[in-house]
Design brief:
The structure is a single chain. It is built from 12 helices and 15 strands. Helices cover 28% and strands 20% of the residues. The strands form 4 sheets. A 6-stranded mixed beta sheet has the order 1-6-5-4-3-2, with helices on one face.
Length: 356
């Protein structure tokens, strides 16, 4: 066995005018939805019926725990399997009872090299920063702050981005409910990408602090914060919780170490600006390209209230194939994605296909 290494891969943003990479050009196709859904994680209780190939990873995790703690006995409790498409191979974490406490050992195995293991050592003092954008939605903001005020206030802080013309007094609302946080006032048009980027790049945050990109329409239970602290690991993992009313192929909410956010270029504000949607999916893919593994579990009490696109967001009806520069992917122009093109693309001459 070998220790899990921290990757040093840096990802550069594609040029604003293209060409765009494959994961942008294949967005909304059936392949991408299927791939993203298969990043879901699962838990298996132990003892239980475990296939021998899975027991192998439990065994090496137990061995690592015994070495780390210097004990002769350690009992595995839970095996977590991180989605089959989260990273190549078989990856996950084993929760173990040893030395009178619960510990965790993660493992990664691409099935080519030796499996790598790591005894998880949670770092005290890491901040979880709820990053939200709010513009002229005072009632939603009031509800959001009231909801989070019921959580353990020692486990998080707020960062809210706002733009000119917004009458909401964010500081007063946070003070009223006893919630710590600060406001970043931006210029120009509303842009979720720019707002999230401003919070993540606040100079007071450290690389291993955690940004939780969320929304004023989201109710977040305490177990999500616990999971964010458990799974987000600088250079290794990000966490994307899923609620019962959100499809598995939707990104939306995500938590990641600030150092990893910087390493992959952050939200692409030049490309997505005030365009509605995809800025979060784009960041997800670049984190994965940098070998930051996405961990995704369901949370029964995590709720997202669906809403129309906010005023000021543009490009809602711009076909994906026109917005992105996808040379070689066969867009016709009027289709929104590859799936819609179908046979219409197959039977058209090359000179009628965008960027063929």
């Amino acid at each position: 066995m070998q220790p899990i290494q921290t990757p040093s891969i840096e990802i550069k943003l594609p040029p604003p005018n293209g060409p765009d990479p494959w994961y942008r050009c294949a967005y909304y196709s059936g392949m991408i939805n299927d791939w993203y859904a298969k990043t879901e994680s699962h838990r298996l209780s132990i003892p239980g019926e475990l296939p021998q190939e899975k027991k192998f990873y439990v065994d090496i995790a137990v061995l690592q725990a015994k070495r780390e703690l210097g004990v002769d006995s350690a009992t595995p409790v839970t095996l977590e399997e991180w989605g089959e498409m989260a990273a190549p191979g078989y990856n996950g974490m084993v929760e173990i009872q040893a030395a009178g406490r619960r510990v965790s050992v993660s493992f990664e195995h691409d099935t080519l090299d030796e499996p790598a293991v790591r005894f998880e050592k949670p770092k005290d003092g890491r901040r979880v920063i709820f990053s939200v954008c709010e513009q002229n939605r005072g009632n939603d903001w009031e509800r959001f702050v009231k909801d989070v005020s019921g959580l353990d206030k020692n486990t998080f802080t707020l960062c809210v981005s706002s733009w000119p013309g917004n009458p909401v007094d964010h500081e007063a609302t946070m003070k009223q409910h006893g919630v710590n946080g600060h406001v970043i006032k931006l210029t120009g048009e509303f842009s979720r990408a720019a707002g999230m980027d401003a919070c993540a790049k606040d100079p007071s945050y450290q690389d291993d602090d955690i940004i939780f990109a969320t929304d004023v329409d989201v109710y977040t239970p305490q177990d999500v914060i616990t999971a964010v602290r458990r799974y987000v690991s600088l250079g290794h993992r990000a966490y994307f919780p899923v609620g019962p009313n959100r499809a598995l192929h939707q990104t939306g909410l995500g938590a990641f170490a600030i150092g990893d956010y910087k390493r992959v270029g952050g939200y692409d504000t030049a490309k997505y600006g005030n365009r509605y949607g995809y800025e979060d999916t784009d960041l997800f893919y670049r984190l994965r390209l940098a070998r930051v593994m996405p961990v995704r579990f369901f949370h029964d009490e995590l709720k997202h209230i669906d809403h129309a696109p906010m005023q000021g967001w543009s490009g809602v009806n711009t076909p994906h194939g026109e917005f992105h520069h996808c040379k070689g992917f066969g867009y016709i122009g009027e289709e929104d994605h590859l799936l819609a093109a179908g046979q219409a693309m197959w039977n058209r001459p090359l000179n009628q296909l965008r960027g063929a």
